[in-house]
Amino acid sequence: MIMSLQIALTHHQQVLQESRRGDNVYLAYQHHYALGDQIQISTDQAPVFIWAQLDAALKPALIYVSQKQWAYQIPFNTEREWPYPDGAFAGKNHYATVRVATTEEISTYRNWAENSHDQREDTGAYPHASANAETRDEPVFFARNAIDGMVANESHGNYPFQSWGIAGRADAELDLALGHPVEVDKIVLVLRADYPHDSYWTSVTVAFSDGSQEVWQPKKTAEPQVFAVAPRVISGLRLINLVKDADASNFPALTELQVFGKAVL
């Protein structure tokens, strides 16, 4: 059976524009977005892997949609600092596209944590990052920034230096839900490295969804830090027991979390 998708722009549940159905659909909208606008993706089967690019400023994302409808809330720049490029979702000429992923794309070895379209709330689209602490509840420090595919880490705050900030909490934890089983063998941490403003963690515990744990000792570096793991099938993980270095800075942070492996189909 051929998968069928539909894409629509809605405002408080009122459909403003929608596309034809098919396995590769787009939405061209030549008006300014308004607060409350959503792009809604509907499918006749679920779950499904899709490729989505809902704004030209965002990287395309391979997303596992667990339900027959996924709603993406249009973000608006109402903050002092912003985790999206200038012009994202702005202006009056917009193009969004969604297509069903191929079996070859789903079966490849890749970073299964990356999702440029993740939102702060769990919308049933994965991967999804959440945390028990986010600095001042500001978008540039949301957990979602740690999986958006951006690795610029030698500053902090405004795009492209968004990160997961922990609000100074010693009990901060980050949860990554993949939404589906993946056999993983490598994890990469990119620490925010705006030194000496930033500190870093000397110990990080990774609690996998299969019940196993590993403890790592990151270094004070701007380079990506690669941790090989014994292959295991997981549907998510949690970063816990984050131990800050005993330096003068109160600001350890995570720029990017990458999880490499192959989906279990």
Task: Please describe what this structure looks like.
The protein has two domains: 5-107; 110-263, Galactose-binding domain-like (Jelly Rolls), CATH 2.60.120.260. The protein contains one helix and 17 strands. The chain has one helix at 103-107; strands at residues 5-11, 14-18, 24-29, 37-43, 48-53, 61-65, 69-73, 94-100, 110-111, 125-126, 128-131, 164-165, 174-191, 201-208, 213-216, 225-244, 253-263. Strand 14 (201-208) and strand 15 (213-216) form a beta hairpin. The protein is globular and about 55 Å long. It comes from Schleiferilactobacillus perolens DSM 12744. InterPro entries: Galactose-bd-like_sf (IPR008979).
Give the N-terminus to C-terminus distance in angstroms. Answer: 18 Å
Give me the count of strands: 17
H and E order:
EEEEEEEEHEEEEEEEEE
The global form is globular
Overall pLDDT score: 96
Give the strand content.
35-45%
Oligomer: single chain
| Largest sheet features | 8 strands, antiparallel
- In total, the number of domains comes to 2
CATH superfamily caption of the largest domain: Galactose-binding domain-like
Structural class: mainly beta
Count of helix runs: 1
* CATH architectural group of the largest domain: Sandwich
CATH fold group of the largest domain: Jelly Rolls
Query: What level of helicity do the residues show?
Result: under 10%
What's the Cα radius of gyration?
19 Å
